[in-house]
Amino acid sequence: AGPGSYTVGTMSERFDCHYCRDPLQGKKYVQKEGRHCCVKCFEKFCANTCAECKKPIGADSKELHFKNRYWHDNCFRCFKCYTSLVNEPFMLRENNKVWCSNCTAAEDAPRCKGCFKPIIAGTVPNVEYKKMVWHKDCFTCSQCKQVIGSGSFFPKGDEFYCVSCHEHKFAKTCAKCKNPITSGGLTYQEQPWHSECFICSNCKKQLGGKRFTTVEDQFYCVECYKGCVAKKCAGCKNPITGM
Ligand SMILES: [Zn+2]
Ligand SMILES: [Zn+2]
Ligand SMILES: [Zn+2]
Ligand SMILES: [Zn+2]
Ligand SMILES: [Zn+2]
Ligand SMILES: [Zn+2]
Ligand SMILES: [Zn+2]
Ligand SMILES: [Zn+2]
Q: Which ligand lies nearest the alpha carbon of 133?
């Protein structure tokens, strides 16, 4: 029983109501802090006030109390889902509202960056990235809106792209074949190239990292340039390479 507790019974002795002086013998009465009173006066002068509905909790109502607060048993419900908490675990939260454990867990759970709903631990798989969290199905590509889930992705600022959208949107495009360069490649005259596109025009060997010569926008390896392209010396018949 709480500090404002009282007992209700039927009076067998010759007592009068402390407030209105009506005889109590044979009637229902309330005893609180050593005083006896009728049910009406109890409700008027002594009853605890329900924390929820702010009405007095009369002798005929079932009263619940927690931390010096009182409720009609019918008023003791979850603030969020309105479930009766009379026989349920509960939490006292902001503004003295009582919450059921489900609603408490939902409220305190991290929020999905996609749907803004709470992510309850252990319910559905989720994706975490830099302290942000998504339901797996809410983690989608900014471009094509397909679910990325636990697949590979590319972050760009606040956006996330699936592999293929990232390729098309952001990857460098080869100066020769115009296809995206997903890995490797090289830069020549500030243009990106696939390694396999940057080749000798004659023997098709890759020229990345090797010496080569350009003649009218064509690339030649040293051997091909000497053998086929360079002008031959009229005197000694050797190629004039300038290299
Ligand atoms: Zn009375
Ligand atoms: Zn109430
Ligand atoms: Zn609830
Ligand atoms: Zn979500
Ligand atoms: Zn995409
Ligand atoms: Zn290419
Ligand atoms: Zn060659
Ligand atoms: Zn010569």
A: 4
Domains along the chain with CATH numbers: 1-70 (2.10.110), 77-108 (no CATH), 114-169 (2.10.110.10), 172-229 (2.10.110.10)
**Residues having C-beta closer than 5 Å to ion ligand 1:** 17, 19-20, 38, 41
The residues, any chain, with a CB within 8 Å of residue 165's CB and separated by 6 or more, are: 141, 142, 143, 144
Distance between CA atoms of 178 and 45, rounded to whole angstroms? 88
Percent of the chain beyond pLDDT 70? Answer: 97
pLDDT tens digit string along 38-85? 999 999 998 999 999 999 999 888 999 888 889 999 999 999 999 999
DSSP string for residues in 70-136: EEEGGG-B-TTT--B-TTS-EEE-GGG-EEEHHHHHHHHSPBPTTT--B--TTTS-EEEETTEEEEG
How crowded is the C-beta side of 134, counted as CA atoms within 13 Å?
17
Q: Distance, CA 213 to ligand 7 centroid (Å)?
A: 10
ipTM over 0.90: no
Give the number of whichever ligand sits closest to the CA of residue 163.
5
Pick the ligand that lies closest to the CA of residue 21.
1
CA 14 to chain centroid = 67
Residue list, CB under 5 A from ion ligand 4: 112, 114-115, 135, 138
Q: Name the percent of the chain lying above pLDDT 90.
A: 52
Q: How many angstroms separate the alpha carbon of residue 110 from the centre of ligand 1?
A: 54
First-to-last C-alpha distance (Å) of the chain? 102
